[in-house]
Design a protein that fits this description.
Belongs to the short-chain dehydrogenases/reductases (SDR) family. The protein has 300 residues and is an alpha/beta fold. Helices cover 43% and strands 14% of the residues. The chain is globular.
């Protein structure tokens, strides 16, 4: 499905990114495997993961090149797109997957906790997308696949930085879809449920341990087919959408639209808002759910 395409997958050394890179290569794509080789906290570890994925792709008969740049740096993002152009002559697919976590309850969150997560997830998605957009525009084709999260779409405690970044990516993806549709460029989001070292690092209370057992069944390879499909020409009618993937389930996620309205021809006062608007609209208020409240059943 991706024959003759060139894909850049960020954060592709492990987990979901690795599985997407491997499956894209198996479906004919030449892949730039980006991974700086850092810990979940963003600290240097090794450049090994990217090299390992490249070796696996080549051993299976595919073609790939490693890139060790950080998506949080604009120059590095431009360089990884340039690497695709210099190595393979073009770029057709960008998968914005790189991420880190700095989970902490909001009143204890530091500026550095906030900045580092926003920089990798939101700025990183912007930097890489912006670098590729010029090439997509000139060739009048291209596909963006962004990773969002139900931490933003629904909510999770202790993740204000991550949730804000993931909701920002929703807005970025929709804007790309609108701005670049005339160039035959598409942009969609995946909200993945998969056990990874990122998920494994999230603090959990003892009552959540049973749920964690079911989450461990959600392997990263379940996400890859959706990414391959969205990257392919067979999804040419799919643009500006959000898909959640949970094991063998695929969900089309809602996007904000008006639910109900109230009107007073003479205008509103604080008192009439209290007496009229509140009781009318309150039955349609969205509950203060967490992700596990909405996705409460055990995946199969």
């Amino acid at each position: 499905m991706l024959e003759n395409k060139v894909a850049l997958v960020t954060g592709a050394g492990r987990g979901i990114g690795r599985e997407m890179a491997l499956m894209m290569a198996a479906h004919g794509a030449k892949v730039v495997v980006n991974d700086p080789g850092v810990s979940l906290e963003g600290k240097d570890e090794t450049d090994g993961p990217a090299n390992e994925v490249v070796r696996d792709i080549k051993a299976a008969g595919g073609d790939a090149v490693a890139d060790y740049g950080s998506v949080s740096d604009s120059a590095s993002a431009k360089a990884m797109v340039t690497r695709a152009m210099d190595t393979f002559g073009k770029i057709d697919v960008v998968v914005n997957n790189a991420g880190i976590l700095r989970d902490v309850i909001f009143h204890k969150m530091t500026d550095e906790d906030w900045d580092s997560v926003i920089k990798v997830h939101l700025y990183g998605s912007y930097y890489v997308s912006r670098a590729a957009a010029e090439h997509f525009r000139k060739q009048e084709s291209g596909t963006f696949v962004h990773m969002t999260s139900t931490s933003g779409l629904v909510g999770n405690p202790g993740q204000a930085n991550y949730s804000a970044a993931k909701m920002g990516i929703i807005g970025l993806s929709k804007s790309l879809a609108l701005d670049m549709a005339k160039f035959n460029v598409r942009s969609n989001c995946i909200s993945p449920f998969a056990w990874s070292r990122m998920i494994g690092s999230i603090p959990n209370t003892p009552d959540q341990e049973e749920r964690l057992k079911s989450l461990r069944m959600l392997t990263p390879d379940k996400i890859a087919p959706v990414a391959v499909f969205l990257a392919s020409d067979d999804s040419k009618e799919v643009n500006g959408q959000i898909f959640a993937v949970r094991g063998n389930e695929v969900f089309l996620m809602s996007q904000p639209r008006p639910l109900r309205s109230v009107h007073r021809s003479e205008g509103w006062t604080p008192e009439t808002l209290r007496d009229h608007m509140l009781p009318t609209l309150k039955p349609s208020f969205i509950p203060l759910h967490m992700s596990r409240d909405v996705f409460s059943w055990t995946p199969v």
